[in-house]
Design goal:
2 domains, about 0% helix, 16 strands, 1 helix, mainly beta
Amino acid sequence: MPTLQGSGTGPSEPGVRGDSMQDDGVVGFSKATGHAGVAGVNEEGAGSGLFGRSRRADGVFAESAELRGVIGTSKATGHAGVAGVNDDGNGPGVFGRSRRTDGVVGLSDQGNGVHGRGPTGGFFEGGSVAGVHAVAQGTGPAIRAAGDVEVTGDIRLANADCAEDFDIAEAESIEPGTVMVLGEEGVLHQSQQAYDKRVAGVVSGAGGYKPALILDKQQLQSNRKPVALLGKAYCKVDAQYASIEIGDLLTTSPLPGHAMKADDPFKAFGAVIGKALRPLKEGLGLIPILIALQ
């Protein structure tokens, strides 16, 4: 039998109630596998299964050496499994702390894992000894903002280039690193001729570099690819006509989808893709370049 068990008998009576003026309202410990430190059940009335109140310490305190300190389940629509309320003080409604893993975890099969709403922000403040205040992970977008995003500090992006999605002709055959030129109605084609002033950029994602920012992203359109317009990207290059050194200006090559050294400054004006960041003495290769259309 549990050390403490309560069941509400009236329509508004808690199953277990703890009041304290200076210490914890209710404290329960259990060493038995599968059993709670404190269990309160109210199956028929309108009161709480477990209620704790304290004026100076925790209303309800739960501790577990291996599993969750508190777990709550609700089958009622619109009601939380666990609810925390602080009406009068300056403390949080819900507080979670862990020495080895997450302080608070929210999981949902259909809605939000964690939902926050407040007059100044849904999630007001986060803190971590490691320096990261908020971490979001997901198989889809880690963070989705329905409105504007305001940032008062720096934005640090781990990946390399700023790209924009474009409609691509014969998209299924176009590889990352391919040099692209403008076509009719905004559709891009791989380059076909030397010193082409229609050059637009390089398809992102080759050689381990990924786009840090993608503009005009549209879902469920298989004929679109991100094209690097600024930053670093790996590019298919052709050194058959001239060796490529670090810092050389690059333009379109006669070889489809490739760049080559721009050794004619008059033809190069308006047809430069960027600068080589690695050399290529001869033949064909894939090298990082600094995208700088000019």
